[in-house]
Design a protein that fits this description.
Layout: H1 2-12, H2 22-43, H3 46-53, H4 59-97, H5 102-137, H6 147-175, H7 180-187, H8 203-217, H9 222-264
Helix pairs in contact: 1-2, 1-6, 2-6, 2-9, 4-5, 4-6, 4-9, 5-6, 5-8, 8-9
Length: about 270
């Protein structure tokens, strides 16, 4: 139980990130995976199984089971969005490498930016869903019940909150746009350098900036085209890293839910 408490506290430190980048997302997802592995171990303890089996018909048990399933659905949707985003990035990279004319490049960039708008719409829906999950799995404290049982239910509920917080962080990474004011200011600054594009921007925002610039300046501008290619390559690397971390978390969540189902089915 102490290890779970420590992991929950670590995860809370990630929630304050205003502009989450790929590295922070991966660290948070790795922590989430560790949390669920610890939860799985807790649910396999004889003491835990005995305590939960006595209350398997309670409404809040159903809420936790339903919440864990819906969080898996949310995770699956986010994984699909990540996969689609990676394909869009690769298609755009291919277009830029083939040295097509400006019109072809503009079409490819417009498709990419349009997909980002779709991501933002999906993110809003998923965030609303996660709020419902938190509400369903929450409830009154179980102080009058067995201490170990109350502690297990509490950390299960806190795990739900931690999961929604980390997924929210990931959705922010995917959906927060590069501010137009920032793009405009950087476009009119003669001292802009490649490293300068990354200041206060995550990998996706940085790629967005490069693509907006390429649209404005034209694909014939070699420096801006090179910048866009570099930013897209960097973004693809980050996406793949996040996909791997998200996949590990997803599998840990599945194992923990299976253990919970086994316990309440005894």
């Amino acid at each position: 139980m102490v290890r779970i408490e420590e992991e929950l506290n670590k995860l809370k430190s990630w929630e304050a990130s205003s502009t989450p980048n790929g590295e922070r997302i991966c660290d948070a997802l790795s922590g989430l995976g560790e949390l669920y592995m610890s939860m799985d171990d807790l649910l396999k303890l004889t003491l835990t199984q005995q305590a939960l089996s006595l209350h398997q018909q309670e409404e809040w048990i159903d809420g936790l089971l339903d919440g864990s399933l819906r969080l898996l659905d949310v995770c699956g949707i986010i994984r699909d969005l990540m996969s689609q985003l990676k394909e869009h990035v690769r298609d755009l990279q291919s277009t830029l490498r083939r040295r097509k004319d400006d019109s072809s490049t503009k079409i490819s960039i417009s498709k990419f930016l349009s997909f980002r708008k779709d991501i933002k719409k999906n993110a809003k829906k998923l965030i609303a869903t996660m709020k419902q999950i938190e509400k369903r799995t929450g409830g009154s404290l179980l102080l009058a019940l067995d201490h170990h049982f109350s502690s297990v239910i509490r950390v299960l509920r806190e795990a739900v909150v931690a999961t929604t917080s980390i997924f929210h962080l990931l959705l922010l990474f995917l959906s927060v746009p590069t501010k137009r004011s920032l793009v405009s200011r950087l476009l009119h600054t003669e001292t802009v350098t490649y490293e300068g594009q990354r200041v206060n921007m995550n990998e996706l925002q940085s790629a967005n900036f490069a693509l907006h610039t390429l649209l404005k300046c034209g694909s014939s501008e070699g420096d801006w085209k090179l910048l866009a290619q570099n930013r897209l390559e960097y973004l693809e690397t980050s996406i793949e890293a996040i996909e791997n971390c998200l996949g590990l978390s997803f599998r840990s969540m599945i194992r923990a839910r299976a253990s919970l189902l086994n316990v309440v089915s005894l």
